[in-house]
Design a protein that fits this description.
Elements: E1 2-10, E2 13-21, H1 27-45, H2 53-59, E3 66-67, H3 70-85, H4 95-100, H5 110-118, H6 124-127, E4 128-131, E5 136-139, H7 151-165, E6 171-175, E7 178-182, E8 191-196, E9 205-211, E10 215-220, E11 225-228, E12 231-234, E13 237-238, E14 243-244, E15 251-256, H8 259-284, E16 288-292, E17 295-299
Antiparallel strand pairs: 1-2, 2-6, 3-5, 4-5, 6-7, 7-10, 8-9, 10-15, 11-12, 13-14, 15-16, 16-17
Helix pairs in contact: 1-7, 3-8, 7-8
């Protein structure tokens, strides 16, 4: 068996794949299939592409049905489900706030920030209606959807699915801080990945995870942020205030069966914070690790090495 690694650009970052296959494996076909899989997700769900299917939904008038691809319906449905299960901590309906604060395609705007903060907000699961049988969606009031807290995880799942169709039974697939492991390495060991220390200046491991047929995602306050009046503000939005979280954990790492769910739950845990997040995670049986600057706490039945 030969060790293969490949990567490429997607969603403002890079995707990667690590796996073992015979020496005569068709590398070019595999790279194209994986690139196509993540490109399709970006084309459907990007807020940076004016022509994306998500932006068509955002531009629609309340009450107007919009036909959308099956993959987008899947992600929207999971987003609404996790939004309800998290008590609104995860909310895909914060596109106006994300954009206003400069985390989208447009620069930050004081006027739009003020509008986002004063807006009377309903959770997305009370506004968006999905008709999966007909392949369509509609919103019942004005709302701008943003899938940055879940689309990369889904992209990893699609990357993994493309690998499986190529006959790859084991490997490690990733987009940014979202990863999914298939099977084990040739020697029977799981796939080893690191949870990063929440440090702006350096990249160093805090914890080591050994993964087998699970996904992991990390959301944090130390890579994507803006400086406002000398204060660093995280890219993760407070669903109630329409602004970046004021006192988020340094990071939250979640393990789940699929990367889409791990990605969304990691965002939800950042919003909930350590105390409420750990309580909910224990109820759900969801492995989670919180890092504060200088300390950590998590649950997970030994899945985390700290």
């Amino acid at each position: 068996m030969t060790r293969y690694t490949m990567n490429g650009p997607t969603m403002g970052t890079r995707w990667s794949a690590l796996f073992h296959m015979p020496l005569d494996f068709d590398v070019h076909r595999a790279r194209k299939a994986m690139a196509d899989a993540v490109t399709e997700v970006d084309e459907q769900m990007s807020t940076w592409r004016p022509e994306s299917d998500l932006n068509r939904l955002n531009a629609a008038k309340p009450g107007e049905w919009v036909f959308v691809p099956e993959s987008l319906l899947t992600v929207l449905g999971t987003g609404l489900k996790i939004g309800q299960a998290s008590g609104g901590a995860f909310d895909i309906g914060l596109g106006d706030a994300v954009s206003a604060w400069g985390f989208g395609a447009a620069d930050a705007s004081e006027d739009r920030i003020k509008t986002a903060r004063l807006a009377r907000r309903s959770p997305a699961h009370d506004v968006l209606e999905l008709d999966k049988a007909a392949g369509r969606a509609r919103k019942h009031s004005e709302m701008c959807f943003d899938l940055n807290g879940i689309a990369k995880g889904f992209g990893v799942d699609q990357l993994t699915g493309a690998a499986r169709q190529l006959g790859i039974e084991a490997g490690l697939f990733a987009i940014d801080g979202e990863l999914r492991a298939l099977g084990t390495q040739p020697d029977g060991r799981g796939w080893t990945v690191a949870v990063e220390m929440p440090n702006l200046e350096t990249r160093a491991p805090h914890s080591v995870l050994v993964l087998e047929d699970v996904a992991v995602a990390t959301s944090g306050d130390y890579r994507h942020w803006i400086d406002v009046g000398g204060r660093r503000l995280s890219h993760t939005m407070d669903p109630h205030l329409g602004m970046p979280l004021r006192h988020p954990p340094a990071s939250a790492t979640v393990i789940a069966c699929d990367c889409m769910s791990a990605d969304a739950w990691a965002t939800a845990m950042m919003v909930l914070g350590e105390a409420r997040g750990l309580a909910l995670a224990e109820t759900l049986g969801l492995p989670v690790l919180f890092l504060e600057h200088g300390q950590s706490k998590g649950i997970g039945c030994g899945l985390f090495s700290r």
